[in-house]
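Q: Hi! First time doing this. I have a protein sequence and I read that you can turn it into a structure. Is that right? Here it is:
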Amino acid sequence: MGEEQEKQTKEQLENSQKWWDQRHKRIEVTDVSGPVRVAPPKVEDMPRFPPVTWPTPDELFQKNLEKYRQMALELGAADARIIPASDVPQDLRAYYVGCINPSCRWLNTNANCPVVRTFPFDQMKKFFGEYRFAVVFKVLPPVVEGVPDVGPVDLDMYYTMGGGPAPDRAMLARNIIRLRILSEMERRIRAEAYYDGYLMAAPMGSGPCLLTKCADIRRCPAAEKGGHCRFVDTQPNGAGCAYVNYHALGTKLGWGRLQVGGNCAFPDDVPVPNEYYNIGLILID
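A: Yes, that's right. Below is the predicted 3D structure, encoded as structure tokens:
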């Protein structure tokens, strides 16, 4: 028990342990189902953790990195690794080809889109260079029967404005759930690292937030003039904003080919559905 914890009361320690246990619990479909929660929780429902004194002693770094790797597995990852941040492949084509041409369906629809939050390639290379390690984890799509509850979804216009048919609701809902789980995993691991004293821990994002958070209002308030985001945990999309080549990363880690998804195909359509996966990525220093 550290010096900071010794100063806590028994009640504070018990409360902290309760929330730590909850944070490490495997994320199920029911945990991310239903309408998104916009309002902050009530005080009595708000997680309470004992933050450490910054900076964290360097001798704890490797131990904590292993804790985050194990945490990813506990949350539901099929595999998790700690790799040097320099081993994360960055490719200019991740932005130009992955986002712009062919055009992503969600291009320019939200404030965290790479088109809106474009940073020079050299700047993002330097950004990654400031970190020593990355927590990388492989996430398989959850098994979902029927149409999962994701709350109101009003996104038909993004499919029909070009003359196409409305999206299949079951397929769209399953993908919303899949991305919500990935985002929640990144959020929890980043939060744990933050309370451990790694204030600059940076998750790289997990898809268009219009789809996962604002599907009920079909627009991004933060992208409007004078507007602001309804949430505090949105993240720029790593593939475009940070130029991360996730396909090369998955192959490099021996996880198999990262099959095409998103606009081009859904987990039901890919050649090897049981091997379809997403990648979570958090930079730690």
